[in-house]
Amino acid sequence: MQVLYFAWLRERIGKGSETVDPPADVATPAALIDWLKSREERYVAAFQDVSAVKVAIDQKQADMTTSLAGAREVAFFPPVTGG
Fold it and tell me: Which terminal CB of the chain, N or C, has fewer other CB atoms within 10 Å?
């Protein structure tokens, strides 16, 4: 699965994307974040306030409880504001 990080998430993690192979029990974006956070401190820093993070699965906006079954791409990004 390809995971993309945008804006300050990318800055805190130190990369814009990576390919990961999470365990089978990682079934939602929320579980994916928990798994990523268990791997390294930089993910803990990036995802310290999950309420400020949005997610898209295969380029469609989703929520943190949406199933990742069959997902090829998960993108995490801050809320977008106009101006």
Answer: C
CATH of 2-77, one of 3.40.50.11810, 3.30.70.260, 3.20.20.70, 3.10.20.30: 3.10.20.30
How far is residue 24's CA from residue 41's CA, in Å, rounded to a whole number?
A: 22
Q: What is the pLDDT of residues 32-65, one digit of tens each?
A: 999 999 999 999 999 999 999 999 999 999 999 9
3 state SS for 18-79: EECCCCCCCCCHHHHHHHHHHHCHHHHHHCCCHHHCEEEECCEEECCCCCCCCCCEEEEECC
Domain positions in the chain: 2-77
Residue 80 is predicted with a pLDDT of 73
